[in-house]
UniProtKB/TrEMBL annotation:
GO molecular function: SNARE binding
Coiled-coil segments on the chain, per record: 62-96
Biased amino acid composition, Acidic residues: 397-409
Sequence segments annotated as region (Disordered): 250-284, 368-409
Basic and acidic residues bias locations: 385-396
Name of this chain's protein: Autophagy-related protein 14
Family: Belongs to the ATG14 family.
Presence of keyword Coiled coil: yes
Bias type Polar residues, positions: 256-275
Keywords: Coiled coil
């Protein structure tokens, strides 16, 4: 109806019958839509239960199977890598075993085969003699180049005891371990560098493999600072476990090493000195102790080199490096045995080598030996090189007004 004031249409008014009719129609439509809704809901539930749920379950099962397969493949790859490593190790063990069998067979064959014909034996002997002579010549040239000599001292005269001089290399004195503290670090480093170069060239010429190996901090041989440590070896001598590298040099600011270190070795009931040694590797922070250990390694190398050339160096004489090297260079058996040529000697160190590294380390650190007297070994007619050196020293002594007296002790 229209408003009497604004003349706009207002709400419509219905009578009771119209309202009942409209409400009835609405309820009828609502019931119809409810039935449609329930039908759609039932169809949706049916589709979910009969179609979607099985497909979802199958996809979930497939995904689970795929993850399981991936885990199995990863485990299989890991097992394959482990099996490959084990195969490589087994192959290496088989090769080692085969090599040892060949070595044993060759040794048995060598012991069981009859002696070579006289002509072949003579040929081998002549070749060995020629190689020994060539090595001896190279060694003598090496001694002359590095100028390894003994200066000072005097022989016994008029009932007075003689004195030993200082051994020098490259005009630098290399003191025994007990006298190192009397020299500045630069002097010790320089003379040790000369001694290391001399020893490396000497072992190269003679074909000898030493128990302790010297390495350099630089990229080339002789460049940088020397460090020393054991190579792979057996239990004989007690040196193989000292594989940690020790500095074979002193810093310019550090004082000379003090004798405060104790070494270790396996106790030997037959040797009271070995049984008293403590079992401990020197701490890496103790630079002085580490240098003393490195110096003992160098002394052990020189003693073993002398042993390979049939020169006897007792424990009390092991500290005089240059004297021992000079005796090696004057040995009548110089260059006859080697690790490289026939007849080959066993790898370092054989049980017949009497010196134990722990004993040498204890003697070097606790009670360093004084300068020992050099023994002059007599080897008969094959003493050509030693006799030449002795005659040269005799001529020099006669020019200086000294009389040489042989020491047969």
């Amino acid at each position: 109806m229209d408003c009497r004031i604004c003349e706009f249409k207002q709400r419509q008014f219905y009578c009771d019958n119209c309202l009942k009719t409209h409400i009835h129609d609405f309820r009828h439509q609502t019931q119809h839509y409810a039935l449609d809704r329930d039908e759609h809901i039932s169809k949706a539930y049916k589709a979910l239960n009969e179609t979607m749920t099985p497909s979802r379950m199958s996809r979930a099962s497939l995904s689970t199977c795929q993850r399981r397969v991936e885990e199995l493949q990863a485990g299989l790859a890991k097992l394959r890598k482990e099996n490959e490593k084990k195969r490589d190790r087994l192959r290496a063990l088989r090769e080692t075993l085969a090599s040892r069998r060949r070595t044993i067979s060759a040794a048995k064959l060598q012991t069981s085969t009859p002696p070579l014909p006289s002509r072949e034996a003579e040929l081998i002997s002549s070749l060995s003699i020629a190689i020994a002579r060539a090595r001896s010549g190279l060694v003598q040239e090496l001694v002359e180049v590095f100028n390894v000599v003994e200066v000072g001292g005097r022989p016994p005269i008029g009932g007075k005891a003689g004195t030993k001089g200082e051994w020098t290399i490259g005009d630098l004195i290399l003191p025994v371990p007990g006298d190192i503290r009397r020299y500045p670090p630069d002097h010790i480093n320089a003379v040790l560098t000369h001694a290391i170069h001399f020893l490396s060239l000497l072992t190269f010429y003679l074909g000898i493999k030493l128990p302790f190996e010297v390495i350099w901090t630089g990229s080339k041989l002789g460049v940088g600072q020397p460090w020393i440590g054991a190579i792979k070896g057996g239990e004989s001598g007690g040196w193989a476990r000292w594989y940690t590298k020790h500095p074979l040099h002193l810093s310019s600011s550090s004082p000379a090493p003090q004798q405060t270190v104790r070494a270790q070795s396996s106790p030997d009931p037959s040797n009271s000195l070995t049984a008293s040694i403590m079992a401990a590797d020197p701490p890496p922070t103790a630079s002085q102790s580490s240098f003393t250990t490195a110096l003992s390694m160098l002394l052990y190398d020189v003693s073993y080199l002398a042993y390979t050339q049939t020169v006897d160096v007792p424990l009390s004489q092991a500290g005089d490096v240059l004297s021992n090297l000079w005796m090696v260079c004057c040995s009548a058996e110089l260059g006859r045995k080697s690790h490289e040529t026939f007849p080959k000697i066993p790898d370092p160190t054989p049980p017949s080598f009497p010196l134990d590294f722990a004993q040498l380390l204890q003697a070097t650190t606790a009670n360093p030996a004084s300068r020992p007297r050099i023994k002059r070994h007599k080897h008969g007619a094959g003493e050509g090189v030693a006799r030449e050196r002795i005659e040269e020293v005799s001529r020099e002594a006669e020019e200086d007004g000294w009389d040489l007296v042989d020491d047969d002790v």
